[in-house]
Protein 1
Amino acid sequence: MPSIEGAVIRKILDSRGNLTVEVEIRFGKVIGRAAAPSGASTGAHEPPAWPKGGVDKAIQIFRSSIAGRLKGRDVADQAGLDRLLREIDGTSDFEKIGANVATATSLASAKVAAASAGKPLYRYLAGSGRPGLPLPLGNVIGGGRHAVGGTTIQEFMVVSQGPTLQGNVFANARVHQRVRDALTKKLPDVPLGRGDEGAWIARLGDEEALGLLADVCQGVEKDLGFAVRPALDLAASEFFRDGKYHYRDTTLTQRAQVDFVEHLVRDYGLFSVEDPFDQEDFGAFSELTKRVGARCKIIGDDIFVTNVERLRRGIELHAGNAILIKPNQIGTLSDTRAAVDLAHRSGFATVMSHRSGETTDDTIAHLAVAFGCLGIKTGAVGGERIAKLNELIRIEEELQAGA
Ligand code: PGA
Ligand code: ZN
């Protein structure tokens, strides 16, 4: 039985310049390493990323209460390790150790297990299942919590649907570049910058930004000969107050918000729309799904927070037809997988996702392939984003060679 010989933790930087952690788990010469990302538009039902006392406290807890208990454990027993993390924490949602230490430890353990079995992570985790390549969702124009002075809607994305993953990644980057050209033409005297996820920041109205992106998508679609569609993450909980949605230039009632999102889905041919409503409003998710669920993925992020209990409620109410999957929203690989399995069993699609604060860790690329997710949301450009995209390109090549 390959057993864990040691585990270390260190402080590293994330892409926003904040401190985060990475964990290394060792078996002989084999090392599994994983880092934790963090969000800016975190859902109210997410566990805390850090214990009270922050990153330093998390490191202290790891060294005093976790590392020693990992030693000697079977690296292949992921479920047992994840149960142990919950037991050490002792609360229902990682309040004591923080979800980020749990996530990094859980993923590092899976990686050392895969490496000691001589397999890439995606293949190890796929088991007897067939690995599948996801559609990349690339963030092109960004606002909300990810960009100062930009749109109210958080993410205007592109989803290219050509015959290869590599071609889709390149097409998304091409859209990102052409949107830069379109923005400099439209706003010639305004400096152009990028937000936390590498998307352009533009002081445009929300529908104006979507119109500009949709036009660029159409042009690229024509050039390449396959579908290139826009998609949105509204992150609507961030601008929902006192029963209303507060856009920079307008305010909408809850009922008007459903009509507005329906209009965007229909008139701009959206591939998907994420968090179009407040995280407690299962009713509005159900209504939109009834109206446009057949033509568009209605994705829940803050509403489901990768949590099977909240997802189960959403499935019963037909509140959406897809779930965003963020491992550090739930804290362990086993719980992440449980959410994916429940979604797939229930006819919900899954989209694996980065966080706005990322590292160059590429584990989610492997998870998306292993679990057969429909999509992966991990930006269009930027070092910490292309770390995942380029890894997906390598995986595609490997799968093609093995096919
Ligand atoms: P976050 O945003 O990582 O800042 O939470 C990403 C998202 O809302 O999907
Ligand atoms: Zn989101």
Protein 2
Amino acid sequence: METETETQGRTFDVARVRKDFPVLEQTVHGKPLVYLDNAATSQKPLAVIQAEEQFYLRDNSNIHRGVHELSERATRAYETARIKAQEFLGAKESREIIFVRGTTEAVNLVAQTYGRAHTGPGDEILITAMEHHSNIVPWQILCEEKGARLKVAPVNDRGELELEELIRLMSGKTRIVAVAHVSNVLGTINPVRAIVEAAHARGIPALVDGAQAAPHLPVNVRELDCDFYAFSGHKVYGPTGIGVLYGKAERLEAMPPYQGGGDMIASVSFEKTTYNTLPYKFEAGTPNIAAGVGLGAALDYVNAIGIGKAAEYEAELLDYATGELERIPGLRIIGTAREKAAVISFEMEGIHPHDVGTVLDQEGVAVRTGHHCAQPLMDRFGVPATTRASFAFYNTKEEVDALVRGLMKVKEVLG
Ligand code: C6P
């Protein structure tokens, strides 16, 4: 008789994929590790680990500065990663790819440059109720500084964005619309193409927080037509400390620089400094070069897997896990959008999420508990915290079964 994994294997060879992730082959508290905290950070395939290692073993040098062989190699590797990111996002030009530390820095960059240049007293910044703190707080800082107002579009009880309300909130005072492509708590996939279109029809630029989308959905910034798109390397099977801000060239050209320092200048004198061309104008100082190289390897890896195929497989896992969790008495799933990525937040009647997570950990099952950096969304659903299981293409239905067994244990111990 074939196992569940073998059945899945006809379309997606998860057993083979898992071999690429050495970290998955371990026991935790004497139980096989079941890693379901992928929305926080995903695990890294050997190809990524080796790319970073090889960089430090062979090519380590600073970039854009030296004429020597190592510096040229390092520069080539870093700039090749930029082209890979360009292709991954379907951007028109590689100079539209700004390397940053992650999604958080990308949003702060836009708020502090585009935002500061275009926002004044009485203006509005429009976001949604399902944003991560990193797509809320940078805008609040801007609003506070400029005397502007943060407007928030609501979500319904299923955790879907109320699109008509969002569009109704767009006004002549709106300076930017900033929305998550996929919610890190609810898994909701937002209709970003429609949002961008509505914003543009009113002359408003749009930023998309793609932190939870880039690892799970095919993304094409030219089709979305968004002005800015941000994602983090560490969620897309790459290293921490590197991420991407995509911006349309004409927007980036018109923006003031973010930070001052080396590499972002064309010339410096005490009287006047002129700035470098794109993308370097926004990349002051020595970046995380090895992580950039690792991100390039991660994008190669994801392309080889095929993000569309991975998305189909993850959708299958989501269906299975949703069905299994719904059968557990007293468990309520928060976030039941029709368009959903493989993230399941839930609460268990009478049991604090922190205790759920602690018991699951003893069973080898890693989930995240807490407010998931989305406190306003917790308030919207009237909960202080949730337990969240988030899946990647290396997870299996057997691991979903292990989660369910762990939750039965939680009920036995704490229920
Ligand atoms: N969410 C989670 O467990 P950084 O930390 O810069 O790589 O990504 C920030 C971020 C921005 N937007 C969304 C939608 C996110 O989910 C995250 C990170 C993690 O949900 C860590 S809090």
Protein 3
Amino acid sequence: MKFKKIAALAATAVLTVGIFAGCGGASQQTSSSNSSSKKKVIGFAQVGAESGWRTAETSSIKEIPKLDPNFELKFSDGQQKQENQIKAIRSFIAEKVDIIALDPVVETGWDTVLKEAKNAKIPVVIVDRNVKVADNSLVTAFLGSDMEEEGKRAAKVVIDKFGKDAKLNIAELQGTVGSTAMIGRQKGFNETIKDCPNYKIIKSQTGDFTRAKGKEVMEAFLKSDGDKINVLWSHNDDMAVGAIQAIEEYGKKPGKDIFIVSVDGIKDMFKLMADGKSNGIVECNPLLGPQLVETSKQVLSGKLKDKIVHTKEGVFTQDQAKKELPNRKY
Ligand code: AHR
């Protein structure tokens, strides 16, 4: 097996622009507790709590006031619903926070509310997943992973194992439909396997990034095509963990009868990899709190260095999983 750990991509600056004129800044009025303490307030609109990755991201974001006591955090859990996230953003605007940080459940549908934030002169930092808006000035900065690259890396894991000419039937567990994590990973994977004439995606359905749905969908895949599936490509670890249970209950050996690759790098998946039940992890780094502090400081001082910052990530094989397991923080 010819796996390569991809060298960490140290905070890749893709594009540098200034923040939009007049946004945020030291003079911004914030919530009453904030104005008395003079702390800067970040309002964070989180997607939900659907996966181990998400829990790790939430913990990292909640560390912000400890990382830098000059910041206060207002946190909102959107419970996987865009309407809840929009409501949270409107509350942050009403409370006059200094920065709005949004981890958007899906890419589209943000133009109106982000225009409201811009009109209120509150800078918006997009975290993890991205948004698609007609006017790019609605977004001050983005920090997170390159999801398309993650999909490409997952496909390379499969190609490294089987070669481009192999005949493979692939089952795909998609993430939340319309999210950058789903769109980017699917695009990157599909583009990469275009060079492999006999790779076929015979099953593809969303498991909404959760363990329970991953198991449920995999059970259905196995019921209809259990004997045909050679590879499981899962857009995240949690769905793959659920699918591994389904594969075992079906009487097959995950990691042996079905080759498995997934994205994230949570501890549970590292354990399964170390036990030989999965084959490849494409890492997606959820520890975004420190980077959000750094970006927020730059935005508030009017000295934003990079409008887009991509996080560090690697690829892990079974051999590497055992070694790496004791170091995993989430
Ligand atoms: O947006 C990041 C993705 O969302 C992670 O891969 C997944 O686990 C989470 O739910």
